[in-house]
Amino acid sequence: MKKVYRHSERIFEKVTNVATAILGNSVTFIIALLTVVFWLTSKRFFEQDPHECIRDVIHGVTFISLFIIQKSFNHFSAALHLKINELVLSHESANNTVITVEGKTEHEITQLTKEYAELAEEPKVKKE
Question: What was the pLDDT predicted at 85?
Fold first, then answer.
């Protein structure tokens, strides 16, 4: 049962990575924007009640916001990872295996978190 769970987790992580890359892509944003513009300029839109028009505009803006937020988060996340990687690499005693932690599964990250929690609880030996 554990194998099935881990296998399904790996598949889900791959799907979410692909979805994140697609949703944060500029081309996807342009397609979504064109879709919303086409939708809002359709003949049916102008024949609606004003309340329905406002509702449709709000839905369109919300839909477009999804792509903007995802693009912003992808940019922020990549910059943050780069900064942290630089800090880890610049410190001699740091464990450089955490540099590629973004590519690990959730289970592997949980195991690493437990290892680091244990390391943090160990008393530090002072050099004299």
Answer: 84
For 94, phi then psi, to 5°, come to -75, 150
Q: What is the 3-state secondary structure (H, E, C) of the chain?
A: CHHHHHHHHHHHHHHHHHHHHHHCCHHHHHHHHHHHHHHHCCHHHHCCCHHHHHHHHHHHHHHHHHHHHHHHHHHHHHHHHHHHHHHHHHCCCCCHHHHHHHHCCHHHHHHHHHHHHHHHHCCCCCCC
> Cβ contacts of residue 33 below 8 Å, gap of 6+?
64
State pLDDT tens for residues 83-126: 888 888 888 777 777 778 877 777 788 888 888 888 778 776 55
Sketch the domain layout of the chain as residue ranges: 2-121
* Per-residue confidence (pLDDT) for residue 99, from 0 to 100: 78
